[in-house]
């Protein structure tokens, strides 16, 4: 395997594990009984995943890293 494949597999693994752990933590907190810090705004309550900043950060991180790797592979692949 070349370096690009290894990096993509590591990024995919970290992203998948992060999303699974974040989802599990959110589910655990939802099941917990007791008062919350404050009320949740209605748009966020309707779209729990789409408006979650943690999920947005994972998605944005993955897109940026894949783009950087693709650009680097194109640049260095063309010069060799």
Shape: elongated
The percentage of residues in β strands lies in under 5%
Largest sheet: none
Average pLDDT, to the nearest integer? 79
Q: How many separate domains make up the residues?
A: 1
Radius of gyration: 18 Å
- Determine the N-to-C terminus distance: 18 Å
Order of helices and strands: HHH
Tell me the helix content: over 70%
Number of distinct helices: 3
Low-confidence segments, given as residue ranges, are: none
From the helix content, strand content and strand pairing, which structural class follows?
mainly alpha
Number of strands: 0
Keywords: Membrane, Transmembrane, Transmembrane helix
Transmembrane segments: 6-26, 55-78
How would you sum up this structure, described in words?
The chain crosses the membrane at residues 6-26, 55-78. Keywords: Membrane, Transmembrane, Transmembrane helix. The protein is mostly helical. It has one domain. It has three helices and no strands. It has helices at residues 3-31, 42-46, 53-79. Helix 1 (3-31) runs antiparallel to helix 3 (53-79). The mean pLDDT is 79.
Quick structural summary:
The chain has 80 residues and is mainly α.
């Amino acid at each position: 395997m070349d370096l690009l494949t290894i990096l993509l597999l590591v990024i995919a693994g970290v992203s998948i594990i992060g999303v699974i752990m974040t989802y599990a933590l959110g589910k655990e907190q939802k099941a917990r009984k007791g008062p919350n810090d404050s009320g949740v705004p209605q748009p966020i309550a309707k779209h729990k995943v789409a408006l979650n900043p943690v999920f947005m950060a994972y998605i944005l991180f993955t897109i940026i890293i894949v783009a950087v790797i693709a650009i680097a592979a194109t640049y260095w692949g063309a010069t060799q």
